Structure formats: structure tokens, C-alpha cells
Amino acid sequence: MTDSLDVADAEAAQLKHEVGSAVRWSAVNSLFSRVSQVGVGIILARLIAPNQFGVYAAALVVLNIVISVSEMGVSVALVRAKEEDVARIAPTVSTLSIASGTLLALLCAIGAPWFATALNAPAATSLIRIMSLALIVAGASATPAAFLQREFRQDHKLVADMASFFIGTAVAIGMALAGFGAMSLAWSRVATNVTAAVIMFALTKQRYRPGFDRKEAKALLAFGLPLAGSSLLVFAVLNVDYIVVGSVLGPLALGLYLLAFNLSSWPVGAFSMPVRSVSLPAFSRLREEPERFRKAFQRGLQLLALFTVPACVLLGAFGRPLVRFVYGPRWGQAASVLALLAALAAVRVALELAYDCLASAGRSRSILYIHALWLAALVPALTIGAHLDGLRGVGIAHVLVVFCLVVPAYLAALRPFGLRAGELGVSLARPLLGGAAMTAVAWGVQRSVNGEFLQLAIGGTLACAAYGIAVLPLRQEALAVLRRTAAD
Question: How many alpha carbons fall within 13 Å on the CB side of residue 189?
């Protein structure tokens, strides 16, 4: 009995060490990526007109939706598989991923004119064909990417992401300066994906040649296809607004919306991605221990809220001076929807953690049903919102659907794991109170201070101070959460 307890303690300590290390590396990666992308985005916004960004956004919509199912969800099975099963299923995972990515790339290339026309951006046809190359790369690199995630090797992922960022940025800026417009963004995306794939292959220890086992393929597809369907719905949910904006309001509005959505997604990338990089494998290892599983989710959600709420409030409350000061007056209309998208981003962080929780427990069908409901409600809501109030109407539709339908649906799906709305609400109370205080401060400063820079400097400082005071009682608890998450 004592020996078994010692083994369990050793395994728990090892998992704690691996997760802590992975979170730290992933946090560095996300911080680097977010800061770098904002900097490059500012440069490109000064070089490329909003209309050209709209053309690129139309092509990006197609790529993002299709790439979400490029490996049919089977790589997730590799992440959550037991150690003794990895060698058996890895060759089939590789084959399915490569075949799916290649087939989807061909379909995108052939259907590019139709996709571009449907998005009211015929000029995006050539961009869609160029960016379809990324689908082949995604399929080929699915297996090494899964191994890096499975083994918590976020340090290797950092190397791949940094190298791909520098290569992609060099391509984008060089081509933009040469006058290639939206085409520079398309080739930059391909260069980024290829570079990351090459480095992930080089840094992955496990090497499995493609193979095929009919029995394994059937089992993988039975697990992966519902998850791939869920992923498709997730990406459809996050991209159907681009389709609506492009088709109803045109490429110029789509370019403005792309900027606003990218800005609002900054907290998602900076704070959610480090946790999501380890949450699926970590939850998977804890799925046989309900109490630890429940506590892990609650700690993760609280930690995310402490950092996500102030970041989203700053983006939303100071959207207009931020956009005009940083990107220039021609992008000013993007601020009309930024506050609403920032609120959406705060909720997305929590929903993505819930997604990983359900996926690790094998509840892929629950995820599928939730996102089917989300998409079914979102399409008509966005269309009505765009017609009634332009970009702001699109943002309002997003927020209403998420709060009225999606959040309750996820809470219902999490109940079997002992996760109750009341307990989760208590853990989020202080960050939300702090967010309300920040909003009040931002409103007062912008009414009493003139000048965009002064509004950002004075208002941002005072708002952050207000948040700090509001969450002060949670200081020790927050430090404890960080120690439990990141300590060896």
C-alpha cells in the first residue's frame, strides 16, 4: 500500500513539474508572440490599406475554417493516448492527417473563385489558392505538433514559433514595401507555417513513418470526427462574423473588423494559450481522479480571470483612443466594435478552458452539440445586427448569443464533473468587480481629459490601480494559485 502511494506521489510530482515548466515556456511564447504581432500589425497597418486587409481577411476566413478539420481531430487522440498505445496509433494518425490536409488543399484551390465571390471579395481568389498550401503543411506537421504538446515541450514550440515569426515577418514587410498589398500577408502565412513545421520535425524525438491500420483508423475516426466537427463549428463560430461582415458590409468594413477582432483577441492569445497548451494533456491525466480534475479546472479558470479581465477592459474601455493613436485615423471606425469584441474575448477564454475539460474527458459529442447550437443562433443574429447597426450590431449579436445561450450550455455540460455555476461565480466575483471599477475610471478619464495619448496614459494607470484595489483581498490566493500551477 505504501509503495503504491509513493508511486502515485512521484507521478503527481512529475506531472506538476512538467505542467509548470510547460506553462512557463508557453507564457514566454505567448507574450513574445502577442507583443511581436502587435508591433508588426502596426507597421503593416501603416503600409497596407484597410480594403486590402479586408481582401486578406476573406481568404483567411476560408483557411481558418478548413484548417480546423485538416487532420480530422485524430491528433488529439495521440495527445491523450496512454504511453503503451502511442507507437501503435502514430503511423495511422500521420497518414490520416496528411491525406486529409492534401485533399482539403485541393478542394480550396478548386473552389477559391466561389469562396471569394460568396465573401464579396473576388480579389481574394488568388490569396485563397496560395494559402491553401498551409493545409498540406498542417496535415504533415500534425503528428510532431501532437508529440510536443503531449510531452509538454513548450520550449521546443517556442523555438519553432520564434523562427517562423521572424521568417513570416520578413516576407510580409518586404513584400508590403514592394507594393504587393494583401498578397504579402498571404505568402507570409505560408512561410510561417512551413518554417514552424520544419523546426517541429527537427525537434521531435519520436519519428513514425506514415502507415495504415484499418482497425486503428476506424477507432481514431470514431473519436476524432466528432471532435473535428466541433473544431469546425468552433472556427465557424469565430469566422462566420467575417463572412457576414464581408457579404453584407463589404471589404472595407471587413478590414476594419479584422483589426478590431485581432486586437480583442490579444488577451486570448497572451493568457489563454499558455494554459491551453497544457490543459488538454493535464486534464487527460487527471480524468480518473474527479476531485483533482474539478479543482484543476477551478484553479485554471480563476488564474485566467485574474489576468484576462483587466486586459479585456483596457482594450474595450480605451478602444477609440487606442486605435486612433496607434494605428492612425483611417482605422478609427474599428473602435465602434472593439469594446463588444473585448467582452466576447473575456468569455472565450473561459469557454476554451471548458472545451479542453470536456475534450479530455472524451465528451466530444457534447462539444459538438454546444457549438452547433452556437452557430445556429449566431448566423441569423449577426446578419440582423449587421443590417441594423453595422459593425457595432455584429458585436452586440456576438455578446447576446454567448451570454444567453452558450455559457448556460457549457455550464450544463460541466455539471457531471462537479463544476457548479455558483462556485465558479464566487471565484470570478473579485475580478469582475475590478473590471467594473476599471470601466468607471475609463469613462471618467475620457470625459475629463483631452488628447488620445493622455487618455491612454492617465486612464490606463488609474484603471489598473482601481483593479488592483478591487482584487487586493485575493492577493494571497492568487499567489497560491500561481505557485500551485507553476512551481516544481
Answer: 22
Separation of alpha carbons 109 and 60, rounded Å:
14
Q: Would you state the cell numbers that stand for residue 106, as one nine-digit string?
A: 485541393
Cell readout for 79 is: 495527445
166 Cβ neighbours under 8 A, 6+ residues apart? none
What DSSP string runs through 151-206? TT-HHHHHHHHHHHHHHHHHHHHHHHHTT-THHHHHHHHHHHHHHHHHHHHHH-S-
CB 437 within 8 A of CB 469: yes
Contacting residues for 124 by C-beta, under 8 A, at least 6 apart: 55, 56, 58, 59, 62, 112, 115, 116, 182
Are the C-beta atoms of 75 and 89 separated by less than 8 Å?
no
Helix %, strand %, coil % of the chain (to 5): 90, 0, 10
The burial of 16, by beta-carbon neighbours within 10 Å (0-12 exposed, 13-18 middle, 19 or more buried), is given as: middle
* Per-residue pLDDT tens listing for the chain (488 residues): 455 444 445 545 555 555 555 555 555 655 666 666 666 777 777 777 777 878 888 888 777 777 766 655 566 666 666 666 666 777 777 787 788 888 888 988 898 898 888 888 888 898 989 988 888 888 777 777 777 766 666 677 778 778 888 888 899 888 888 888 888 888 988 898 889 888 888 887 777 777 776 777 677 677 666 666 666 676 777 778 888 888 888 888 888 898 888 888 877 766 666 665 555 556 666 666 667 767 777 777 777 888 888 889 998 889 889 888 888 888 888 888 998 999 998 888 888 888 777 777 767 678 778 888 888 999 999 999 999 999 999 999 999 999 999 999 988 888 877 777 777 787 788 888 888 999 999 999 998 888 888 999 999 899 989 888 888 766 555 555 555 544 44
Residue where the block lists cell 506538476: 16
The pTM of this model reads 0.68
Amino acid at 165: F
Place of cell 502577442: 34
Report residue 71: phi and psi, to 5°: -120, 20
Helix 214-249 vs helix 50-67: crossing angle, to nearest 10: 160
Q: Which cell numbers hold the place of 449? A: 481629459
